[in-house]
Model the fold of this input.
Amino acid sequence: MSTDVYSAAQPTTDNGVAVRADLRSDTVTRPTEAMRQAMFDAHLGDDVYGDDPTVNALEATAAERLGKEAALFVSSGTQSNLSALMAHCARGEEVLVGEDYHVFGHEARGASVLAGIALHPIQTHADGTLKLTDVESRIKPDDNHYPITRLLSLENTVSGAVQPQEHLQALVDMARAHGLATHLDGARVANASVASGMSLATAAAPFDSVSVCLSKGLGAPVGSVLCGPIDLVASARRIRKLLGGGTRQAGFLAAAGLYALENNLDRLADDHDNATRLAAGLASAGPLKVTNQTNMVFVTPPEGDQRRLAQHLAADGVVITPSAPTMRLVTHLDVSDDDVAHIVASVRRFYD
Ligand SMILES: *Cc1c(COP(=O)(O)O)cnc(C)c1O
Done:
């Protein structure tokens, strides 16, 4: 954005137009100059030996922010959730998880494939919540016909929707009363925290373990942190090694995550404002059904318009995924106020 090198590296859309805004996901952000400088300047060691000072600083900061004893820097949200599930559960044990949650639907069932952990999907409502009685009725009795139900895995935000904290707490309390452990896939828990005014530690408080993505709205290029009790994190560290995720001078990457935690949390409010303005603009720009929550805007155009609308936007340098019937547009730190106005004007031209 700011330097020529950076602009020259910008990809183009299918029809060769320079990309001005990419709303497919908040994973597409590039490190800012300041974040790159922090990475460049990072003090390094060998993290498998435990002596990379920047990784250690990131893990200490993440644990403190999330209000947990310890944290582990991992390569992705998927590796974080998988390490957590494997640390909580032995082979033959079972996790209850929302059927629309990432852990069930978008992680290639790694816990089952690699670790013999059974995943039991629970019906997920439109607002992302699970019904307490749906969860409770799936906890198996101690009977050798069944796997041992060991863990309840929840998510916040779910497709941008902030989950009501009292409801999460009620689910956790019920799970604990049955002897289950609890995990939060908090890939976007920072968005939930900023949107609700709750601290990260408060949002994480009900759960034994919490996974947070540094590479989404927080703007780091790589990485997640898994936070929880010391013993669980120690066990997850061994599992990360087993999964091939022990890395050496990882401080270069941890520096970006540390920079993100120190500088990019509060600014998520800008992404939420942009999503609100984008939603309002689009609702008035054409015959579109539009909703939004935190940094996500959901747009349902008349049937058959998805692909043509995506092509029209691409010609204006805007990248979206033309999923049908509803398209998800995600705001992030590389989508500016001006980009929002540009997108709305482009959609207005499409329908004029
Ligand atoms: C993105 C995401 C993940 C996984 O993160 P990766 O870094 O892409 O593996 C996990 N859970 C949720 C809810 C996500 O949105």
Remarks:
- The pocket of pyridoxal-5'-phosphate is lined by residues 76-78, 81, 102, 155, 185, 187, 213, 215, 224 (CB under 6 Å).
